[in-house]
Amino acid sequence: MKNYKKLLGIGSLLIAGLILIAADHIDAPAVQGGTSDITDFYAFQGEGNNSIVFAANVQGLLSPSSTSSAEFDENVLIEFNIDNTGDNVEDLVIQAIPRDGVMYFFGPVAPNSTGLNSTILADNTMQGSVDITSYGGNAIVGTNAGLSYFAGPRDDPFFFDFAQYSAIIGGTATSFNNPGSDTFAGTNVMSIIVEVPKSMIGNSGTINTWVESKRKQ
């Protein structure tokens, strides 16, 4: 069992099919581009009506040349948090931790403790794993007990015209262009994705959800 300390968190979602998108591509120098740097968090309904997909992207702004050597940090835990009682405290967590080219998942299950510190729930029976997809390789998807998993490099899906945003902030423009210029085009991220049956987290109403990266201390 290992304790981990929080580095970053973000989130919120209505189960009835809405999409949550949260992005944070620009951070302090000590975090930006690092293996624990979360760039995006997405939560949305799966292909059917009975599941929710949670997706976290880390290590943003990877060039194609650097993506081929990018790896998940074995000292960094990615933790998806789910509050289904409305008190902004996690009732369930889904944990992802890499080891030797495989991403291991634990949960959804009640955490041993809430807040800044986490313990890897290695004794939890609801778990799965997936080989980490290599850059340029076909996507590998793992499944277990109705859950699906993916881990590996992906094209950065977040569209943002940073130059136009800067112009608006600077007072030289008043609105975004349509379609604008995608600042993140041609860059990649490292993605961790899990699709979960709604029955495992609550079938209706609103949940609060956020993701954290936690480094081993």
- Can you count the beta strands? 14
Largest sheet: 8 strands, antiparallel
Question: What ranges have pLDDT less than 50 throughout 5 or more consecutive residues?
Answer: 4-19
What are the secondary-structure elements, in order, as H or E?
EEEEEHEEEEEEEHEE
Beta content comes to over 45%
Distance between the termini: 12 Å
Q: Classify the secondary structure makeup into a structural class.
A: mainly beta
Number of helices: 2
Number of structurally distinct domains: 1
**Rounded average pLDDT:** 84
- Using the alpha-carbon principal axes, give the shape: globular
Amount of helix: under 10%
- As a whole number of angstroms, the C-alpha radius of gyration is 17 Å
Write the layout of secondary structure elements.
Layout: E1 3-10, E2 13-14, E3 20-23, E4 38-45, E5 51-62, H1 64-67, E6 76-83, E7 92-99, E8 102-109, E9 117-119, E10 127-131, E11 142-144, E12 147-155, H2 162-170, E13 188-197, E14 206-216
Antiparallel strand pairs: 1-9, 1-14, 2-14, 3-4, 4-5, 5-13, 6-7, 6-14, 7-8, 8-10, 11-12, 12-13
